[in-house]
Amino acid sequence: MRASLLLACLSIGCASISRPAPGTAPLAGPRPVPPSSPEPGETVAPLDLGGDGKPDAWTFSRPGPDGKAVVTRKEKDLNGDGRVDSWERHAPDGTLAELVYDMDFDGTPDATLHFEKDRLARKEYAFGRDGVVTVRGFYENGVLVRTERDTDGDGKVDTWERWESGRVERIGTDSDGDGLADRWEERAPESPQK
Description:
Radius of gyration: 20 Å
Largest sheet: 12 strands, antiparallel
Shape: elongated
């Protein structure tokens, strides 16, 4: 699980953490992210997924209408450093509503996946220590249909992609900063196979 998350992080281009030059003061390290405390009415069950005798996952639940426990959220320490790197939030019926990852383990969430009725509806990426979302992907029936990007870091969407059958069909760009696409590029049709 930990290795697959790290591979996924590398495959989508996570930035590496730079080290200070010799003789310079290091930047402040990542803030600690301990597991949350249970909210009123919740109970927490710590789990040792790594088998080292230390909890690295916590499941929070509360009684449902029938008295049975319903999971409300989960937190996990994916790399064993003692800090939470993954958060899950569940809907009142126990279905997954949101999944958040700190993929570079700096204490700031980098990817947030939003679910509707247990189906992926939107992904948001916020690489960097500021936590600002720069890429959003929108899904229908679990399939990517469009993305929005802020490529210049000004907090406004300036690139739109329309997806079909797992491929980009059109790309729109905003070159004058008004929040509207000024130009659209269509994907060239494929030539028939001979």
